[in-house]
């Protein structure tokens, strides 16, 4: 019996490692290509955090955090090697580029699993939990990054752009956040449901 248990455990560990590696690879591809990162003069628009959100709902929290950290370190590397927007130089600070990204799977994970338990007897409860978890994860990225930019670099942003940091941040959030939330939900919902179905099989 112990041999069987050990074999199953090794297979699970191998599968987990491979899945995590694939999610990290996908994150890096999205972060370094226009598929997942549109770099604009003021701020970049990205969906490179989508794998971290998906991982939070179909994998363990440590695995999904590893995926999120891949996104954070990719942002840090891009800020150092090829800054494109006026805000990119501030992403060399890990508190801006990495910390908010590390929190994405944390909020998505607990939102999803908490709602799933609360709505276990509700029809389409799992889908609702996925949608809300996705929105929360996405907003964690958006507001986490901008909050750190404001708290640390408000004065420098004003001196560089001539505009108050808060007004610049509000403008950036208001023009992209709603559309990004809708788009990311459309991407994440069917993928998570398909992956969960495959895992059950």
Summarize the structure in words:
By secondary structure, the protein is mainly alpha-helical. It has one domain: Arp2/3 complex 21 kDa subunit ARPC3 (Orthogonal Bundle). Helices cover 78% and strands 3% of the residues. Strands 1-2 form a two-stranded antiparallel ribbon. A hairpin with a 4-residue loop joins strand 1 and strand 2. Helix 6 packs antiparallel against helix 7 (125-161). The longest helix is centred in the last third of the chain and has 37 residues, at 125-161. The model has no long low-confidence stretch (mean pLDDT 88).
Give a quick rundown of the structure.
By secondary structure, this protein is mostly helical. 78% of the residues lie in helices and 3% in strands.
What is the arithmetic mean of pLDDT? 88
Number of β-strand runs: 2
Largest sheet at a glance?
2 strands, antiparallel
Query: How many helix segments?
Result: 8
Give the second-level CATH assignment, the architecture. Answer: Orthogonal Bundle
Please name the defining characteristics of this protein:
mainly alpha; two-stranded antiparallel ribbon; 201 residues; globular
Summarize the helices and strands and which ones pair or pack:
Layout: H1 2-32, E1 37-39, E2 44-46, H2 50-58, H3 61-81, H4 94-97, H5 99-102, H6 104-118, H7 125-161, H8 165-200
Antiparallel strand pairs: 1-2
């Amino acid at each position: 019996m112990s041999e069987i248990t050990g074999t199953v455990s090794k297979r699970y560990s191998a599968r987990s490692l491979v899945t995590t590696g694939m999610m990290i690879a996908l994150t890096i591809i999205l972060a370094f290509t226009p598929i997942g990162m549109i770099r604009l003069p003021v701020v970049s628009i990205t969906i490179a955090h989508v794998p971290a959100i998906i991982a939070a709902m179909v994998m363990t929290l440590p695995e999904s955090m590893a995926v999120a950290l891949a996104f954070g370190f990719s942002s840090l590397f891009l800020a150092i090697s090829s800054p494109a927007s006026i805000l990119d130089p501030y992403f060399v600070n890990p508190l801006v580029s990495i910390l908010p990204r590390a929190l994405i799977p944390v909020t998505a994970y607990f939102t999803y699993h908490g709602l799933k338990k609360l709505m276990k007897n509700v029809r389409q409860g799992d889908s609702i939990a996925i949608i809300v978890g996705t929105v929360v994860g996405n907003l964690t990225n958006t507001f986490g990054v901008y909050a750190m930019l404001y708290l640390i670099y408000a004065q420098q942003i004003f001196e560089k752009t001539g505009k108050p940091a808060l007004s610049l941040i509000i403008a950036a959030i208001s023009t992209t956040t709603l559309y990004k939330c809708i788009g990311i939900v459309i991407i994440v919902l069917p993928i998570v449901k398909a992956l969960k179905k495959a895992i059950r099989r």
